[in-house]
Amino acid sequence: MYELTPLFISLLLSTGLVAGVINVLAGGGSNLTLPALMVMGLPADVANGTNRVGVMLQTLVGLRGFDQGGKLDRSDMWAILVPTLLGGLVGSVIASYLPTTLLKPTLLLTMITLSVIMIVKPAMVIPGPDETAYRLKDRPWAWFGLFGTGIYGGFVQAGVGFLLIASLAGGLRYDLIRANGLKLLCTAFFTIAALAVFIWRGQVAWVPGLVLGVGTMIGARLGVKLALNVSQQAMKWFLLLMTLAASAAAIWL
């Protein structure tokens, strides 16, 4: 049972703000917010469901910012949404029934694998400056990458931004800024689907979730301003650093 004291309110707002910035620019913010919710006394499964409230709210703010900045690519977004949304539904159902002890090893394996790829062969994830983005129909194998990413996001959420960037920038070769915009779009849709499952299972604590959401929305607004004004090179290094940080978090959390 949790008690929402002034200390915990401050903790949720501050971690939400930092997580909102990180999630818009790269990913891994849930490595901060999930422990914050569990420190309050929420069980891991309820923390996992409650965290989706903040994620949903931040993605809506971030999406609006990218759209206003002209960086939300609409040309193929509906085709991209289908596999991620289907995967999100599958992953959230799995998460609501399977033991919560599987969350940490899943996060750890995913983050370490992605970190190794980005260090050893970064071109697999980060497109060159002159590359042109592909439509999903031109690279049908990318459908399975997006579906698998949706399953992961529905299951654990933490670090899904990295996998979406890997699918969108690595698989379909979107530049990192547009990949981030589409990442938020995909995250918004499968988070809504996942949140519906967690609500149905009674695994959402609304008050801490909404307090966390206030922080993530402020962070998302700041993150969009940064994302629209930084270079591809700076974004690439930030993405690598956040992936390594998420790997460390997965080991120690």
UniProtKB/TrEMBL annotation:
<dbReference type="GO" id="GO:0005886">
    <property type="term" value="C:plasma membrane"/>
</dbReference>
<feature type="transmembrane region" description="Helical">
    <location>
        <begin position="77"/>
        <end position="99"/>
    </location>
</feature>
<keyword id="KW-0472">Membrane</keyword>
<feature type="transmembrane region" description="Helical">
    <location>
        <begin position="106"/>
        <end position="126"/>
    </location>
</feature>
<keyword id="KW-1133">Transmembrane helix</keyword>
<keyword id="KW-1003">Cell membrane</keyword>
<protein>
    <recommendedName>
        <fullName>Probable membrane transporter protein</fullName>
    </recommendedName>
</protein>
<dbReference type="InterPro" id="IPR052017">
    <property type="entry name" value="TSUP"/>
</dbReference>
<dbReference type="Pfam" id="PF01925">
    <property type="entry name" value="TauE"/>
</dbReference>
<comment type="similarity">
    <text>Belongs to the 4-toluene sulfonate uptake permease (TSUP) (TC 2.A.102) family.</text>
</comment>
<feature type="transmembrane region" description="Helical">
    <location>
        <begin position="141"/>
        <end position="169"/>
    </location>
</feature>
<dbReference type="InterPro" id="IPR002781">
    <property type="entry name" value="TM_pro_TauE-like"/>
</dbReference>
<feature type="transmembrane region" description="Helical">
    <location>
        <begin position="206"/>
        <end position="224"/>
    </location>
</feature>
<feature type="transmembrane region" description="Helical">
    <location>
        <begin position="236"/>
        <end position="252"/>
    </location>
</feature>
<keyword id="KW-0812">Transmembrane</keyword>
<keyword id="KW-0813">Transport</keyword>
<feature type="transmembrane region" description="Helical">
    <location>
        <begin position="181"/>
        <end position="200"/>
    </location>
</feature>
